[in-house]
Records
---
Amino acid sequence: MKCKKCDRKAAVEVRRQGLAFCPEHYLEWFEHQVTRAIKRHQMLRHRDRVLVAVSGGKDSIALWEALRRLGYDTTGLHIQLGIDGYSKRALEATHRYASERGLPLIVVDLKEAYRLTIPELAELTRRKTCSVCGLTKRYVMNRVAVEEGFDVVATGHNLDDEASVLLGNTLHWQTDALVRQGPLLPAGEKLAKRAKPLYLLTEREILAYTLLRRLPYQHEECPFAAGAKSLVYKEALNKIEATSPGTKQAFLEGYLKKIQPLLQEGLKGAAPELRECERCGYPTTGPVCAFCKTWDHALSWAKRKDLLPGTTVFEAKPKLTFVP
Amino acid sequence: MLGRMRVILRMPEKEEKTLEGPRKVREVLEALGINPEGVIVARGEELLTLDDRVADEDTIEVISAVSGGRA
């Protein structure tokens, strides 16, 4: 198989578009796809300060690299979750990537900031690990972006993530989530704009980019991801994709273009109004936001169980470490 | 000598298999029951497409691209 742009041997095939590229032209195609997504949804401007959410996995590292190469002003944000050796190795990969390129990095260590790790938080609140982890990451990302003056938060969500979330929300008719899902979440009062510049690229294409650019990344699955619904949905979609290339993209893009506008029109006014959380002042639908409620509850239990001193007070503002 | 092709699976746990070569990447994945949509296959630093041929004495890596939870 030959590259579509030159006569050299192809290294990566993009079956959903009937394309194949040599390494050089693949990297060019990939970064062009990122630019297309950014322009189509007006995600970023070159004068914006962009906070890139970096876990250390292939998607966030590839995103940071592509944005850096495209000339955006980027700073990484890494959240230390406190999951045994997994989190330490995630920070090592992130730190290595940033320091090798001289890029600024902000680290929030949850244990240091809020006195508990994600597994402890899940156990004390008896909630699913992925659920409290997602809630915490979204809160911290937004708060850091707002308080440190960033214009936008960029995350490494890809086509597989977005299509599998859409499939899950559709199977369970989660209309409130279906209305919100998209590559760009606009800014609001104390709400940072959130963009997903990789939403049209598959995990496979992102891995190829990471390998061809020889980027350091953590090739290790979170120990709590085993059995996650998202993996079941991704596997189902990949089975369909193997026999019918382009299905994932058509499913997601068709929904965003044809169905979501109708749903948004039909459900106009159904979304609850946002107000300020009584504890932290950040937007929420009830008196106290889910982040404050969850962490406050967990700290109360930790004190009752003598895991933390009785004088420990919950403070929602995260402590930041700036690297270098 | 048959069955010298080394296939290192990183799914992401590392596992090693031996297969008979030569055969195409597509056939290697089929023999191992792996969906090509979720992986990249590499020979050293060279990325391979499904039509590439793998020799009996080659060592290749099958690297999983699928990851779980997201915020």
---
Amino acid sequence: MINSSLKQLSGQLAAKKISSVELTQFYLDRINKLNPELNAYITLNAETSLGQARAADARLAQGKGEALTGIPFAQKDIFCAKGWRTTCGSKMLETFVSPYDAHVISQFNNAGAVNLGKTNMDEFAMGSSNETSYFGKVKNPWNLKAVPGGSSGGTAAAVAARLCAAATGTDTGGSIRQPAALCGISGLKPTYGVVSRYGMIAFASSLDQAGPMARSAEDLALMLNVMAGFDERDSTSLQRDKEDYSRSLEQPLQGLRIGLPREFFGEGLSADVGKAVAAAIDEYKKLGATIVDISLPNSRLSIPVYYVLAPAEASSNLSRFDGVRYGHRAAEYGDLAQMYEKSRSEGFGEEVKRRIMIGTYVLSHGYYDAYYLKAQKIRRLIAQDFVEAYKHCDVIMGPTSPTTAFNLGEKGDDPVQMYLSDIYTIAVNLAGLPGMSIPCGFGANGMPVGLQIVGNYFDEARMLNVAHQYQLATDHHVRAPQGI
Amino acid sequence: MSLTTDDVKKVASLARLAMTDAEIQAAHAQMSSIFGLIEEMQAVNTDGIEPMAHAQDLAQRLREDVVSETSQRELFQSVAPQVERGLYLVPQVIE
């Protein structure tokens, strides 16, 4: 059962071979057994989950079930869920019980899905290893000494360890794709604006985008069908016709043009990752694709640009945490300024403070043009590179991450080294394009390698088709960590 | 550009973060190394390039000026650190 696809689970639920209550209890038992070691979940609420499961069973009995009705999913703890503690991985929100649902949560609720629990993450989604969470590190199910990636590391570990049928993530600079790669699962960051950000705790608003994380492209498509759609409560939500993201999964890939950016295969890419990605490209050639050499000359600037823009937006977004309306307030303080300063200093962790400081600096008087405006101009150059590239190819492929999962603590003291692990993913967020990662083999240390697939704007169905055809021909995505 | 510890202190104060001298020192070292990375941008010629604030060219949506939300004051204030008679309490600001 733990290896069943969402479609298979849905079929079993509809045929009454299993009930949602049984399925939910089954996952809760697995979580109780395996989570103390992995730390993939921050908050569980078995009674609430089982209540949703009972409601789903009643709905299924009436024959009103939809594709995800009765299936247990985990939700990244960045999504506000009514009645659930919602921490964003921070002490600042340690006791915050959300009074409302994020759009993504209501979409899953309306579909009759079960919320199994809230998954661990880097604090306020700032990190690439899940080591910045106030609620402790998450371990990679493939090797308990290794990081699961971040910031959606709890979700990636939970999906890889079969502690849920599938789960949600968010991606600001690679936070869905990099942990998906490091934990050997599939993950998709949609085109900016496809999934509503309402109720998703903001990090960098012009880059943040929610997406599904699962064991296969087929599962991702079913989840995206539920998650995507216009929502007037998000000012950047796009008004587009509803689409079925699974409509073209079965199309053959004959004639597909795959662009390989030179810049993604150079210095900094570890040999074992390069080898696994090259083998995946060979597989695509067998499936009928042709390879096009392309260049994204400005992509090397994506890290400096990102580390101006994302902290700038974060410093503004996180100013709402002032100890007045919600969140941590210091126990002792004198005047109002001291209350703000003490509450924020106690509530935020080191990485979050660091990014707030960088953001505050680059937006401060006298530096705005040199940093913020300059970064926004280079952002356009980076986006234009992709526009040029898509004149010659249908999808772009490369490694998701330059290495397989590194060890816990390995990059702890050097933020710049940590930032470099997102070198291949950040440009996609800056351009607002859809990107995904699928498992494509294993590195020298036996850890999973991710293949990144980047599509043109709104080309999610095409990308899912490209990923699904590969998964029909290979078995990397069905491998499970030992002991799972 | 080189960042001084005084700059770091000023930024901490603007960001409403209380920091000890040791924390300022540590932040100074790490921010300097991050700005080393960021400085790479300055070598790029961006003359005539329009800044890109957003991935999609969007115009702000407008709507009729009608009430769309119901009052949920009690629910929303239930998560506040300190409230009294429907008001958020903070230290006295005006004598």
